[in-house]
Amino acid sequence: MIQRSTLLALLALLLASLGFAAPASAERIKDMGQFQGLRANQLTGYGIVVGLAGTGDDSLDYSTLGMKGAVSRFGLTLPAGVNPALKNAAAVMITAELPPFAKPGQRLDVTVSAIGKSKSLRGGTLVLAPLYGADGQIYAMVQGNLVIGGLGIDSADGSKLTVNVPSSGRIAGGATIERAVDTGFATGDWLTFNLHQFDATNAKRVTDAINLAIPGSASMIDGASIAIRSAGNGDTRMRLMSQIENLGVQRAEPPAKVIVNARTGTVVINGAVRVGTAAVTQGKLSVSIKESPMVVQPAPFSRGETAVEQSSEIEVKEDYRPVMLVKPTASLSELVDAINRMGVPPGDLVAILEALSQAGALTAELVII
């Protein structure tokens, strides 16, 4: 027979395991936001792509100047007033993202896009070019052969065939990092975790989860940011971040919203939307005009002229639509069923949702984009 003390110990162990276990539908903190300072930086640059099969910029001034600057590095100077008519070269813009903690010598993927009259960059090679940050400093150097996912063909009779976008391509690992960005990560006594979306409930739950694992270390700054005490060097901070990122949090239900795209007629309803009791009717009025012109001939020997007599038929038709009673819904599936029973197209559905919102029967924010 199990003793009372043994039962109490087993019960305490069970409660402890339930208390520290993450909920079945819990999400990791790392999926709800990111630590401040761990951000990418955009890099841009200007360059020249050479080796094109006659699909370059031809006589554009800025591509000519760019090529003159490129060849001047090797001691070649073009005579004044000479236009090389660069059919096999094109001026391009280069873009890339510098990830956090990137170090000199590491490689980056870059995107290269034509900015002139070039029809295709297929088969081209980007000449060595610098990539600049927002502060005007050079952070990477790039060159290499382009990979183009598009195709453009012109025939002698003017026919054209274009597949995807041949005037833009990528160079995998084409850029070499020359300068690192100081994030200030290893200094200071605090880390800041920013949620992807403002939500006071989620901020509270993340703070509580961190304090449960590391008592007294976290406090809310606002509904989107949590301050976490962290002294020590980079190793200590990274271990703390790893521990925090993998904690489980039960995400709060989002605010009720109905998103309407007025251009495409797309309607998206999230699971928090509720509808109260309302009566809805939706009418459809159609007007059709039929023109039946008739040719009228003059009587014999009347010296009259042939004329066209207009004949128009106008018909107005209004479809009968019964009044639909919309009952209070408690779930998204019930709301979808009610909408399907109405049998209205997306355009009319938008008007009905707006009317329900004005009548106070729609407990949701209506967002029209």
TrEMBL record:
GO biological process per UniProt: bacterial-type flagellum-dependent cell motility
GO molecular function: structural molecule activity
Major subcellular site: other
Localisation: Bacterial flagellum basal body
InterPro entries in the cross-refs: Flag_FlgI (IPR001782)
Cellular component terms (Gene Ontology): bacterial-type flagellum basal body, distal rod, P ring; outer membrane-bounded periplasmic space
Entry keyword annotation includes Signal: yes
One Pfam assignment: FlgI
Entry keywords, A to Z: Bacterial flagellum, Cell projection, Cilium, Flagellum, Periplasm, Signal
Signal peptide: 1-21
Primary role: Assembles around the rod to form the L-ring and probably protects the motor/basal body from shearing forces during rotation.
Subunit structure: The basal body constitutes a major portion of the flagellar organelle and consists of four rings (L,P,S, and M) mounted on a central rod.
Family according to the record: Belongs to the FlgI family.
This protein's name: Flagellar P-ring protein
Organism of this sequence: Sphingopyxis witflariensis
